[in-house]
Amino acid sequence: MTAREEHGADAGGAVLAREVPGDGGRGRPDARRGGLARPVRHRRLLVPVLVALLLAQMAAAMVTTAVRQTPTIDEPVYVATATDYLREHRVRYNPEHPPLGKLLIAAGTAVADPRYDPAYTGTQGAVGRHLLYESGNDPWRLMWWARLPVIALTLLFGLVVFAFARDVAGPGGGLAGLALYAFSPDVIAHGSLATLDVPAAGFVLTSVWLVWRARRRPRLCLPWSGVALGAAVATKMSALPAVPVVLLLAVLSVRGAGRRGRLRRGAAAAAVVAVAAVAVVWATYLAVDPRLRFDPAEPVPAVHGLRGRITDLLPLPPAYRAGMRVQFGFEDRHWQGFLFGHLYTGSRWYYLPAALLVKTPLGLLALGAAGAVLAVAVRRLRPVAPYLLLPPAVLLAAAMTGSRDLGTRYAVFVPVFLAVAGACVLTVRRHRTGVPVGLLVVLVATSSLRTFPYYLPYANEAFGGPAHTHLLLHDSNVDWGQDLGRLADRLRRRYPGERVWLVYKGSGVPSYYGIDAGDPRRVAPDRVHGVLAVSDSAAAKARGRLAELIASSRPVDDVGHSITLYRR
């Protein structure tokens, strides 16, 4: 047996460790020669069964989470914009995010068939609240149908993680990578919401996986890699830094005779990916409005200098370029951040790495880091290293320059790529690494199950778990308005008839859920008696009267690790 036969050639063209089918990597004879065809078939069936079980538990976690959470801050905007796409076929609201992710949400809202008043005027946030709470719709039902397509897409991306990890490390590596993905609290949390972060990250991963496989089948995989890249860019503009990375990887994925031949084939490969990506972006806007009209409900800021010139030169629809100007306007603002108990104005370059250390399971951090080191250090893994490491590194570096320190959702691609990188550990001395990898996967699963069903405020055990996250981080890391319905249930069960005061950070309408509460900031402190409920993000940024009220109150309860109840 040759070395190549022993290790196997992966679908991407690199020679990576892989078991001979049926031998468990231990060099036993082919089972068919020993009359052991039935055990071989059972082993082959075991992998798809385990894949189905992992995805089923992930689906159960996301569905259970989705049906019990009230709308988060961004969701009403996306749902209203998706409904406007369906009814009015125009790009009017939320231009800062391209339409594809909201068209996906629209597939769900079409089933819900909500009442919608296109004549209602207001900001995109006001339109979202009007749709959910003032138009005669059931927000629970509407949000469930809006979230369902994102849940389905998140599960499909799990198959991409499995396929990519299997290409790198065989079936065992595929299962390990899928398990790390399926139990990732951040992926479950944001994959169960009608938001855009997980879809964008998943499309980037899909594009990278396809360009990796283009090493063997360039004619098939390069165009589809471009389609997936275009889908990422047509979902969130924060995916734009991935474009030059994927184009570079496309150049690396093709071979030619001689230096000039390689350059020509590399340039052609990059062109195929780029054209396909741009075509997807245009097709997305044409799907909303074939006439490409753009009538924004809110002003689009002017952007000058180099950023403005680059924006004007991009071969993308006018509405896309206008959305980029809105994003630049956001970046020019001064936002408040909260990290490790410190409130500040502006941004910290280390915010995202620090927040990821808090919100990523320890087992995933260990396996992902080990896999990244091995991908660089082990010779037979080096071909896959740029595909696994370069895209998340560039995206993370770009996100770290942003002005909004509002959550790890801006870097949710990190645990997604870490899941694949973690599988690399199984390519080295599998008989020694199999048990440690299995134990770390179990550690990730245990940590994830312990936080159920409160995935948004997850923190790993080194930082005290989800009950302590609000002391370290804020906003979508902890409290994104998701627990208003749970608060209403808690008040009815444990505090019936008591006077309630509420400081809530979110897009929900408390009165809809039966919460009759006053605002403690609008009355004298000596009049605030009874139960004081404060969103943890509001408490993190509390100053003045609210800070005095919290300091003079006694915490007695918490709801979903995102809202604290005080007794006064």
Protein topology:
Blueprint: H1 3-7, H2 37-68, H3 75-88, H4 100-112, H5 124-133, H6 139-182, H7 185-191, H8 197-213, H9 218-233, H10 242-252, H11 258-288, H12 305-313, H13 318-331, E1 336-339, E2 342-345, H14 351-359, H15 362-377, H16 385-400, H17 413-422, H18 430-451, H19 484-494, E3 500-503, E4 517-518, E5 531-535, H20 536-540, H21 545-551, E6 554-559, E7 563-567
Parallel strand pairs: 3-4, 3-5
Antiparallel strand pairs: 1-2, 5-7, 6-7
Mean pLDDT: 91
State the end-to-end distance: 77 Å
Task: Tell me the major beta sheet.
Answer: 5 strands, mixed
Name the overall outline.
Answer: globular
Instruction: State the helicity in percent bands.
Output: 55-70%
Order of helices and strands: HHHHHHHHHHHHHEEHHHHHHEEEHHEE
Low-confidence runs: 1-15, 17-36
| Beta-strand percentage range | 5-15%
Secondary-structure-derived class: mainly alpha
Radius of gyration: 25 Å
Oligomeric assembly: single chain
Overall number of strands: 7
- Major β-sheet strand ordering: 4-3-5-7-6
Tell me the number of helical segments per DSSP (H or I, 4 or more residues long).
21
Quick take:
The chain has helices spanning 3-7, 37-68, 75-88, 100-112, 124-133, 139-182, 185-191, 197-213, 218-233, 242-252, 258-288, 305-313, 318-331, 351-359, 362-377, 385-400, 413-422, 430-451, 484-494, 536-540, 545-551; strands spanning 336-339, 342-345, 500-503, 517-518, 531-535, 554-559, 563-567. It has 568 residues and is mainly alpha-helical. Mean pLDDT is 91; it is low at 1-15 and 17-36.
